[in-house]
Amino acid sequence: MTERVLYVITCATPAARDVGKLVDLAQGRGWTVCVVATPRALRFIDRAALEQQTGYPVRSDYKEPGTPDVLPPATAMIVGGASFNTINKWAAGIADTLALGLITEGIGLGLPLVALPFLNSAQAAHPAFGRSVKELHDVGVRVLLGSEGYEPHIPHQGSKHLPNYPWELALDAVEVGTSDEN
Ligand SMILES: Cc1cc2nc3c(=O)[nH]c(=O)nc-3n(C[C@H](O)[C@H](O)[C@H](O)COP(=O)(O)O)c2cc1C
Q: How close is the Cα of 2 to the center of ligand 1, in Å?
């Protein structure tokens, strides 16, 4: 069977602390998992624990020019918890972090791409956010909001929602995009 490689991309939100839950779920369903963090997300994650869990370095920056890739190529990518900032930059085509470089390019490569946001309702009310979600949706990115995924929380109450953050819905959605029928 061909190896299925999932890139789990995480941003600087409290959900990043729990990204190991998604790694665990995906490994349980047969995926090889690599974690990529935005530079700011490094302050939220337990990097050593994730490296031990996945067997791969957690990358957060572009490699040095001329050096080999240390991760196997991705079959699919999940951005979770996807920050307000990264979602807007992704839609705008900004690639100033490795995470953004991978997911902006992932659109053109036709990879199954899923975003499970973690943000508050005040952030979600900014007009750029709605535009970004629509633009990403129009190019085939599954952005899991509301009943499909995450309902933006009341400001300052995000931590309350972490125990029930629906990591498994992101995995279900990416697997629809990688099933044999597609
Ligand atoms: C304690 C803390 C909690 C935060 N929570 C969120 C959040 O839930 N959602 C969000 O989009 N941004 C949140 N932010 C803001 C992001 O960290 C900030 O926008 C950052 O620039 C995102 O960078 P990234 O998209 O490159 O990961 C939080 C910041 C801090 C310090």
A: 36
